[in-house]
Write a structure and sequence with these properties.
404 residues; six-stranded mixed β-sheet; 14 strands; 16 helices
Length: 404
């Protein structure tokens, strides 16, 4: 896209009162929504008084944070686990009453099984009232080492989904247990060993401060990766227009809290530049030098590669808790199949996918590759690569408003 076209677009934006840079500056600082679940021990080692103190601690925290953009849910665990109240119960103002009525389960301490259940039944469940793009927090309160093993590898999925885990260990809980169950975050304390359940009073203030800092007004950081088609169906001029489009978006968003990476795909896929390259200000030069691959369009394989090599890679400069966005530009239907279920993995990790389909890309392809978000357009069918000029403004608006 030439400089005249960019200037013209900016003129249209300003004349119509849609100064998107100004809009972004005003909206970039927002209170984060937080889904916080309590997972509390109901094993036989607790006395009736201890169990009550456990519930009182949860109630106190909920009351203190009642005016924050945080919603709560709770699950008790022992040999099995049981939902005490969901986010929907909290929204309906029934949570405190349900918590008060909850009876002590009195069994073993199957902690990992309970973590698996709280992840799938509460934290990741819109049926339970979870907000898909909310920051996820789990507070575990336990007075014993787990009776079970992490057979389902639940800790790794929680790390992958950036679910922050705080663990309160009461009594003789081993230090290794606290370390294994909790998140490992730089400059943050996520474990709270206390002697007995009376110690919960001392933990309350410290834990509340940690949670206040999570929902603090902050700039939403965005990791945005471009995955662009380099198959043999593109002419040299089309390939250049694809790269120019990427460069224009990067330049327009250069003063925001968005960082960029790019990968070209054909029969294989190749990293053009990483987030670290963008941080080092070498991205535009690397993009300009990138050569056309000219082969098939193995789209799903490329999506798997961009997920693991770029979007989920701290080595590539990805920010673990940033909002993840993928912009796919393609002029053909995939030559491969989604054998590795990469679309589901991206949905589970809330990676927003915008797809620009050039030419005769089937509508079903656009639908299959893109995210399905309420009240948001995530597919952009265009006739040819000149149509990228018309997509620019619409896609910029979507990215500016990504924190909504």
């Amino acid at each position: 896209m030439d400089s005249k076209m960019v200037s013209l677009l900016y003129g249209i934006i300003l004349v119509t009162g849609m100064n998107i840079a100004g809009t972004y500056a005003q909206r970039e600082c927002t209170k984060r929504k937080v889904d916080l679940a309590f997972l509390f021990d109901g094993s036989e080692s607790l006395t009736a008084d201890d169990f009550k103190k456990n519930k009182d601690f949860i109630a106190d925290m909920m009351k203190t944070l009642s005016n924050a953009p945080i919603q709560f849910a709770a699950m008790q665990f022992s040999k099995t686990s049981r939902t005490v109240f969901t986010f929907k119960d909290y929204q309906a103002k029934k949570a405190l009453d349900l918590l008060e009525k909850e009876q002590h389960m009195n069994g073993l301490t199957n902690t990992y099984g309970a973590m698996y259940n709280v992840l799938h039944i509460i934290l990741n469940s819109t049926t339970a009232g979870a907000i898909p793009d909310a920051t996820k927090v789990l507070v575990i309160i336990t007075d014993g080492n787990p009776s079970d093993k992490d057979w389902k590898n639940v800790v790794k999925p929680m790390d992958d989904r950036h679910i922050t885990r705080y663990v309160i260990g009461v009594g003789n809980v081993a230090r290794e247990t606290l370390t294994a169950l909790s998140s490992h975050l730089p400059n943050k304390n996520t474990t709270f060993p206390i002697n007995d359940y009376d110690g919960l009073k001392g933990v309350l203030d410290s834990l509340q401060k940690q949670i206040y800092n999570i929902e603090e007004c902050t700039k939403r950081e965005v990791d945005l990766a471009f995955l662009f088609d380099g198959s043999e169906s593109l002419k040299a001029d089309d390939f250049k227009k694809s790269k120019d489009f990427i460069a224009d978006i990067m330049k327009t968003l250069s003063n925001t809290s968005t960082q960029f990476a790019a990968m070209q795909f054909s029969k294989t896929s190749r990293t053009v530049f990483t987030f670290k390259d963008y941080q080092a200000k070498t991205a535009l030069d690397l993009l300009e030098k990138e050569q056309h691959m000219k082969d098939l369009a193995n789209t799903y394989g490329a999506m798997n590669n961009v997920l693991h090599s770029i979007l989920n890679s701290t080595t590539a400069g990805a920010i673990p808790d940033a909002t993840k966005v993928l912009v796919i530009i393609t002029d053909g239907n995939p030559s491969d199949k989604d054998w590795k279920k990469v679309v589901k993995t991206m949905d589970d990790r809330h990676i927003t996918r915008y797809v620009i389909g050039v030419g005769n890309v089937a509508r079903e392809t656009l639908t299959a590759l893109s995210s399905h978000l309420p009240n948001k357009n995530t597919t952009f069918p265009i006739n040819d690569y000149d149509g990228l000029k018309g997509v620019l403004h619409s896609l910029l608006i979507q990215i500016y408003n990504i924190e909504d």
